[in-house]
Amino acid sequence: MPVPILLVTGFLGAGKTTVVNHLLAHAEGRRIAAVVNDFGAINIDAELIAGASDGVVSLANGCICCSLEGDLLRTLSSLLRRDPKPEYIVIETSGVADPADIVRNLMDPVILREAPLETVLCVMDAATPPADLDNALQRSQLRVADIVALTKLDLAEEGAGMRMRAAIRAQRVPAVVVDAPHGAIPTALLFPAHADRAPAPREPGPRRPAEERFETLSWTSDRPLSLPRLQQAIGRLAPKLARAKGLFETVEQPGRQMVFQFAAGRATLAPGDAPAAGVPRTRIVFIAELGVLSKAELDDIMEACVGGE
User: Fold this and answer.
1) 86-113: per-residue pLDDT in tens?
2) Measured between alpha carbons, how far is 130 from 138 in angstroms, rounded to an integer?
3) N or C: which terminus of the chain has fewer CB atoms within 10 Å of its end residue's CB?
4) For 222-301, where are the E strands, in sequence order?
5) With the CA atoms of 154, 160, 161 and 166 taken in that order, what torsion angle do they form, in degrees rounded to the nearest 10?
6) Residue 205: left if φ>0, alpha if ψ -120 to 50, beta else—which one?
């Protein structure tokens, strides 16, 4: 099964390592492998550390951490050969690295097949002067981002967060902007539910991330979808979505599964593996701000995509 990658970028001192520390300390049962530049900065509570060998720190909660030195693709290949292999890989870039270069490396066909780039997170100090966003490196970090996390709001002067949000919008960045107090970010945004696994039993009402700003809604169907109708539906839903991901079959190509991704205002389709037995033909997870998208509205829009047999 592919292992999704979360790429964490941001300028020097923005708080990237704090975000990674928080993810590792609050893995909630996920096996996360963190690949970081400054190995010594990882400061997981001592009781979580189980041991270290071959440049890898193992944590008692099932996560591991290794140093981002040398060839990134070789490091990723090594992680993917571990037993058990991680469920997610988090890569923390250098504060002076252009993430566009790393994204290009991750487009290597071998890595893309085994470890697809799921999310690019840009961490930004809320106290950063808005004029600094004109810096070429920070513009690049912002423009590849699916999510921008504002840190150190407790240390910034009043109104700094609002000014930074306005400056980010002025850069015409389509990313979702969230607050990250003490490095905490809603994990449902970083690690959307995997639609390539059997869906969990339905719950009464939508599942909500820890931060009550977002909610997760799922839609399934046992019938194939009309691709043109789906494209129209995503166009209608796009202004209300933070993320979406799913698998489906189409009327136009029955028996062939497609992988759908939506992030930062961009939708992509790619061919998937053969459909799994015993699961709905269509499984899509949508993440939206709380109250922006109702389940009834979502169902109405998506039901209109269903085609004939």
Assistant:
1) 999 998 887 777 888 888 888 877 788 8
2) 11
3) C
4) 241-249, 257-263, 266-271, 282-289
5) -170
6) left
Compute CA distances 47 → 84, 117, 123, 144, 173, whole Å.
22, 31, 27, 36, 40
Contact 111, 117 (CB under 8 A): no
Whether 296 has a pLDDT exceeding 70, the answer reads yes
- Residue ranges, CATH 3.30.1220.10, the chain: 214-303
Q: What is the pLDDT of residues 174-206, one digit of tens each?
A: 788 999 988 899 887 888 665 454 333 323 344
Helix (H, G, I), strand (E, B) or coil at 174: coil
- The verdict on pTM exceeding 0.85 is no
Cα distance between residue 129 and residue 121, in whole Å: 20
In this structure, how many other beta carbons lie within 10 angstroms of the beta carbon of residue 82? 12
CATH no., domain 5-190? 3.40.50.300
